Amino acid sequence: MPRAHDISARIQNAFRARLAQVAVPHTTQNLAILSILLQSGFVSSLTRGTVAGPSPTAFDTCMGKLESKRRIWADLKYRDDRPVLTNMAAISKPSNRIYMDVDEIKRICTGRRAAWIVRPLQMGEIAVVRTRSKENRFLEAREAVRLGLGGEVLCRAR
Amino acid sequence: MDALRQSGTAAEWGADDSQATSRSRRRRGQVDDGQYETPLDEALDLQAWNSGDLVNDFEQWDQHATPLEETSSLPSPAEAQTLPPNVVSTLMRFPLISKRVVQQGGKGRMPSWYVLTVAGNGQGLVGVGEGKDTENPRAIEKSFIAACKDLDWVDRFEDRTLWNEIDTKWGSTRVLMRPRPMGFGLRCNPFIHQVCKAAGIKDISAKVYGSRNGMNIIKACLRVLRGGHAPPMMGDGVGRKGTRMDKGYGMRGRENIERERGRWLADNRLR
Looking at the complex, does the CB of residue A20 fall below 8 Å from at least one CB of chain B? Predict the structure, then answer.
């Protein structure tokens, strides 16, 4: 279920509040987006857990048996008192869904606008794309170009 | 004071230490340098200062009437300069804004000159300074010294342009700057042009929205071009409050981003 606003707001606000960890609801999409952030170096680790805290064992036991109580915890990164991630925002919105093919994703990776309103990716900025491919469902924008896959552009982070 | 001029930093740097005698001292017959002839002369001078002898016959502030030496308590520009002369001579200086400002005092209007200067070495160092004095050349000198004290590093891509688009706001002045390819040039507002020239930025396109007040454009650019070193929201680290110029994170170069993420940024030139 595309809900990239929720995770974008949680992570951005957590970084700005200088939190050590942040918990997001446990869904496939959230796990995938956080994995891409982990690969890009914005967060330092991911842990499954519950609302109480990060704990893989609690994830499977009494509280964790309720899907609504499960969470993914991410450890946030700071350097020189500055957060590593300053902005994270959703691109595709319920009021205006943004689907881009490979050429359009390539455009935003190379400094040009695409789909009218999607600004190009700046240096160090990443975007998460949700494709129709079974093996590579969620990809970073440049990975999607390399694999020749297009899809819905969910969010951007820098 | 004279011992300082002869043997202090100014002398080391070869500053000119000849003193100009003020008009008032010549008027009163005190032409020898240094102390007053008698304590009575000193007391009379102090009395003149306290009694308001600085007001001339037209009930206006007489800026040229000074009972003491002209530069008795202020260092000369050469002494106030904190950089060695061989460095200062290589710096570009652009006095971009010069305004005649007036302070309305009890005894009438007191005009003075305000100057804003941007200094830079064209290789990544740039600073801005403001100076005020009753005489324009001295105000320019003061602002250049303040600019030299404010010099800081600008991280540039290929030593010629920005790393990413910059959108910043200072008051009602919104400045948008974009990196551009080699040979593009500085296609921007004249104030931004001079700031970039001093900093060593060669290719840029920029647009100013809202207010086009020169002072605010220059300050907006400088706040965002320089990365800054103070931790945000921590002032200067030793108890003073943070200034407006320290707000935000500034521009971060590729090396900084790679270090903070612990990942190489792949060469993303997709062909």
Answer: no
